[in-house]
Amino acid sequence: MSQIDPSQKTLVEQLRALAGVSADTNEFVIVKEEGRTIHVRFSPGSTDSLDVKTLISEQGSSPRFVQAGYRNGRREGPLLVPRPMNLVLRKETAANRQGKADGVDREIQTDDPAFDDAVFIDTLINDDLVRALLASPDARAAILSLLGDNCAVIRIDDSTAGNISLDLVEFTQPAPDQQRGARIVDALARLAASLPPIRASGEAPPVDNQSAAATTGCVFAFLGLIGTPMAVYGLAPSGCVESDGEGSSLVCGAGPQCCEPLWTGFFVGLLLSLPVIAFLHRIVRGKPNSSTSRFVLQCATLVVFAELGLVASRLWR
Prior knowledge:
By secondary structure, this protein is an alpha+beta fold. It has helices at residues 11-19, 94-101, 113-118, 127-133, 137-148, 180-194, 209-234, 256-283, 290-316, and strands at residues 27-31, 37-43, 49-55, 79-81, 87-91, 119-122, 151-156, 163-168, 198-200, 241-244, 247-250. The longest helix has 28 residues, at 256-283. It starts with 10 loop residues before the first helix and ends with a helix.
């Protein structure tokens, strides 16, 4: 069996070494001195994936409510929060800053300028809960350390299992930085230890209606890509469609009734979509991901109206 060069270990190999497991072990745990357990699962294949996570603390007896700002709340006991919180942290990009400057995206601020400039907080839970959750300077420092070590995304309580999980990049390439694995494990343990314990409040987590609408629009646009050609060919006048052993084709030269109505319906559909797109431009805002949702919704609207125009032109003949 070939030996791994200790100066060229991949991140996965570094994590295996920290856990003291063999080179072919893909699911294991790293136990820190304070008893914190880090769960690691590596899934090799055509698309490699690496899952690193640890549990959020949920102990505590006397719950505390956060309503009028965390600075005025009691500090003892677990925070009462809607579960799952779906708190996503990632590096703030120029697009994020532009979305906020345009008044489209809205991001919660922690009042720590260095943290707020570097980290984009994507969540629908209220501002005071986020500030209470990230009140510890140690928690914010751990988040900055993880993002600095190419953790693309940090997810806090993204499922009912109550995990802090990391989306990692560059984990299968040998690297000269042989301390990266240890830093990631240490920072994840510090983050978990610095967060206040939480308890479910019984409230349902907020729903991102904008994102749901964008997803629905994409579904309808995709279905239209399947249904529109079927309608266009199925409702075509006699003589406008030729079939051979490889499929069917529309013969525009067979007469103006074959393709001209389709062009008319297509452009009328595009024109009718413009007022809807303008309306979406005004109302889709106020969420951390509103600029993305707005773009997706507007594109889906354009496609769906064009598809409807094509179908309507065949039905109108």
